[in-house]
Specification:
two-stranded antiparallel ribbon, five-stranded mixed sheet, alpha/beta, 342 residues
């Protein structure tokens, strides 16, 4: 019978596959090894294939699209309600097959290999930054056990550690001095890795026109711009800037009932990394605007009405909408665009 829709539950070694016809009747339920997947779908007539947006999903989406199939990725939380029985691979594949055929389902755009490579740089850098912070805190804590308290900031550790090791009057045992030297070298290595990865990200940024356009927005630099371009991909997948801001979790959460709207804090959905970069960028804009007469009037009015933290999230929301406008329409950033339109 003609197979119209297939759901695949991705795994490391064995994939569960569920196929249905145009009436929704199950045609086959299979378990395929990784080496059998491409051969199986190469012999299958072009159809709609659904997968959860998880590990290796973008790779398989590109491979199956090259075979002529239509592949759509979905967030796992949108698939879970369609699991009708106990959770197992076959039930998950059936739920994916059911979810991908829903007209109201929201899908995840398939990333290109280049975009995935840039995001890999960001994830590696994020890991090194986290390890560097942990190493600095460990050195600070060990020194405090001997009564040596350093000021806050990683720069103070790198600047003060050599003098602490050379000071013969601080009564530090030789074993502890050797340990501090080892930890200090590890901290330098982590800092060097972060710097090298940032150099690679900067090089990609200079070669990408869309990333350079986004970097013109106040509060968005090369790191944030490259992460946004690689993650968003085709901005026309979002109907407007509000949808992009909601995708990033920068809009209020709703708990409304009986026709009475109730708005809570921001939803914090989507990519935490992107949301953090946008909010930190907004904080830098607010910090630079304090005490300046030529600050943006809109930002000054916002700071007069709201706390700095709320204003930072609001400005990050505004920047997300500007990002959509620039990416979706191919425009250049204009600081006085609203005034010109008025």
């Amino acid at each position: 019978m003609q197979i119209t829709t297939v759901g695949i539950d991705l795994a490391k070694a064995v994939f569960a596959v569920h196929g249905v016809d145009s009436r929704g009747k199950a045609v086959f339920r299979k378990s395929l090894k990784r080496t059998q997947v491409l051969t199986f779908f190469a012999n299958l007539a072009p159809c709609l294939i659904g997968m959860e947006a998880c590990g290796s999903a973008h790779h398989w989406a590109r491979q199956l699209t090259a075979l002529g199939h239509t592949v759509k990725l979905m967030a796992p939380q949108f698939v879970k309600p369609y699991v009708r029985t106990n959770k197992n691979d076959a039930a998950d594949a059936e739920a994916i097959c059911e979810a991908v055929s829903r007209p109201s389902m929201r899908f995840v755009p398939v990333k290109t290999p280049d975009n995935q490579a840039v995001l890999a740089l960001h994830r590696a850098r994020q890991g090194f930054v986290k390890a560097r912070t942990a190493q600095a805190n460990q050195i600070r804590g060990l020194l405090s056990e001997y009564g040596i308290v350093l000021p806050q900031g990683i720069a103070h550790i790198a600047g003060r550690l050599p003098s602490i090791l050379e000071d013969g009057e601080n009564a530090l045992p030789m074993t502890f001095r050797q340990l501090l030297h080892r930890l200090g070298e590890h901290l330098k290595m982590l800092d060097r890795q972060v710097t090298e990865l940032e150099t690679d990200i900067q090089a990609w940024h200079r070669q990408n026109a869309a990333s350079r356009r986004l970097a013109e927005i106040p509060g968005i630099g090369p790191i944030t711009a490259t992460a946004l371009v690689a993650s968003v991909g085709d901005a026309t997948n979002f109907a407007n800037g509000r949808q992009l801001a909601a995708w990033l979790g920068l809009v209020p959460r709703q708990h409304s009932s009986g026709g009475k709207p109730t708005l809570l804090g921001i939803s914090k959905r989507g990519d935490t990394y992107l949301r953090t970069l946008l909010i930190h960028g907004a904080r830098s804009v607010i910090r630079a605007a304090e005490g300046r007469e030529n600050a943006a009037p809109r930002l000054k009015r916002l700071l007069e009405r709201r706390h700095k933290n709320i204003a930072a999230v609001a400005w990050a929301n505004r920047n997300a909408r500007v990002v959509w406008a620039l990416l979706a329409h191919g425009r250049e950033y204009e600081a006085d665009y609203q005034a010109a339109c008025a």
